[in-house]
Amino acid sequence: MDEYFKSSFMKRFIFKIRTKSYYHIFFKKKFATIGSMPVAWGIWNIDVYGPNIHIGNNVVFVAAKGSRSRLTTIKLGRHEGQIEIGDNVLVMNGVRLSSATRIVIGDDCMLANFCYLTDADWHDLHDRTEPVGKTAPIILKRGAWIGDSAIVCKGVTIGENSVVGAGAVVRRDVPANVVVSGNPARVVRKLDPDKVVTMSKLYDKMGRPKF
Length: 211
Description:
The chain has helices at residues 2-6, 9-27, 199-206, and strands at residues 33-34, 39-41, 46-49, 53-55, 60-62, 69-73, 75-76, 79-80, 83-85, 90-91, 96-99, 103-105, 110-111, 116-118, 120-123, 131-135, 138-140, 145-146, 151-152, 157-158, 163-164, 169-170, 178-181, 186-190. By secondary structure, the chain is of the alpha/beta class. An 8-stranded mixed sheet has the order 2-5-10-13-18-21-23-24, with no helix packed on it. Strands 1-4-9-12-17-20 form a 6-stranded parallel sheet, with no helix packed on it. The N and C termini lie close together (10 Å).
């Protein structure tokens, strides 16, 4: 991204044209609904596969070469995945969302590099020829922040404004306005919700994100 801002006007112009062309020809048709065209750095490094994938307004993707981000749902037998990404969400390099039921990313959430959210085991623990296994929805409430390389497992709800520390493994619900870390994740700090500044507040001051 730094290279982009340091590059010449012509290089930035070509990058914008290439991004918009890719979006209109290939990218947007992979979604069930799109609120507005996302700001996507390296849009060609984002894999979108499966039905029922939705994104809202002012979504920002940062997807580097070699660190592809993946949004994946399946439709298999009685299972049909769904991914809903709200407004003003930030999705960084290497993020993976894998759904056999439902993953909801609320408004103003942030997903850091290489975090992984999966709402299924993907195989039965005993009969490993049986696909999907146990599955339950994941819900991130408004303003939740998932840290670098953290894992959020099936059936988990992350409360409003809460932060999942880098490398944490979350197997149980996280209350609002806390920080959790470790494996299994535990509350290590409480947050003052009045001090939390989210993406929507930034965009209210500066306008919607753009290249």
